[in-house]
Design brief:
2 copies of one chain form a homodimer. By secondary structure, chain A is α+β, with helices and mostly antiparallel strands. The first copy, chain A, folds into 2 domains: 68 residues, Arc Repressor Mutant, subunit A (Orthogonal Bundle); 44 residues, 2-Layer Sandwich (Dna Ligase, domain 1), CATH 3.30.1490. Chain A has a 3-stranded mixed β-sheet with strand order 4-3-5, covered by helices on one side. A two-stranded antiparallel sheet of chain A has the order 1-2. The radius of gyration of chain A is 16 Å and the shape is globular. Chains A and B meet through strand 3, helix 4 and strand 5 of A and strand 3, helix 4 and strand 5 of B. Strand 5 of chain A pairs antiparallel with strand 5 of chain B, so a sheet runs across the interface. The first copy, chain A, binds a DNA duplex through helix 1 and helix 3.
Chain lengths: 129, 129
DNA sequence: GCAAATGACGTTATGCTATAACATTTCATT
DNA sequence: AATGAAATGTTATAGCATAACGTCATTTGC
């Protein structure tokens, strides 16, 4: 079991380890089921750990899947772009500076102060198209 | 009570009218509660109507809110972008060709075939910032 | 015409997702 | 030790969405 990042509590480390091991999105309840042998018993234990991990940028929430995935980059830019394959379920996290710029431009034009961005693209990945 | 579009069934028209009248996002259950006087009784009646309306592009689903909003444009051939104010709850639907282009470029670079795009920007609107 | 296919509808039941509320524990700092 | 902040454990509940059944009306093709 890896100490994948410093300063994590036991529950947070368990949840993060599980997500990293999976490499794919997992629902909170799937995580809970996987961690029952480790002693977790209630959804709230998982949700609380996920909240902290998302705050730190170690985990991303996929709104369109109601699921969570470990961040695959070491630098945790808050605005990630996800390519979600509808056939195989793979999720690719992209860094998209061009998109960041376009979003910033759009927000500026509307006089809108951006806090966070949800950008999830669904379709078929390279291997499945 | 407008016949807001042709070819809608009674339930679909009820749901769409309610969303248009609201002008803001509504959850499926909020719609159901509003339409109980009109005879709707079960969530599935609302969800089925919403499915058809979303298929036609008359309604959008806001993934990050688990809610639905009437499309404010008459034609909707593009992917919509939503600016969601975290303070007043207003949702602004934008047409963003520049973003479309950036998304297409990104997908092309990853050899990813885009089916649909979820793009929801949260922050403070002009009046609330 | 009439059978088959289609799609909407109604209803009950169920499952999945997420948080409220409250008591307790842990741990760093003073 | 005393304090305060954060994490934990637990039960209960709220909120979101669909499965599975049967019915009805309309369209399509023979």
């Amino acid at each position: 079991m890896g100490a994948l990042a410093e300063g994590l509590t036991r529950n947070q480390a368990l949840v993060l380890d599980r997500l990293v091991a999976a490499g794919t999105p997992l629902s909170a309840y799937a995580i809970l089921d996987a961690l029952r042998p480790s002693g977790l018993k209630a959804p709230l234990q998982v949700y609380r750990a996920l909240d902290r991990l998302v705050d730190r940028g170690l985990v991303h929430r996929l709104e369109s899947l109601n699921a969570f995935i470990a961040c695959c980059h070491d630098q945790h830019d808050r605005t990630a772009v996800f390519l979600i394959c509808q056939r195989c379920g793979a999720v690719d996290e992209e860094d998209a500076p061009t998109l960041q710029g376009a979003i910033a431009d759009l927000a500026r034009a509307s006089n809108f102060a951006v806090d966070s961005v949800v950008l999830e693209i669904k379709g078929l990945c390279r291997g499945c198209r």
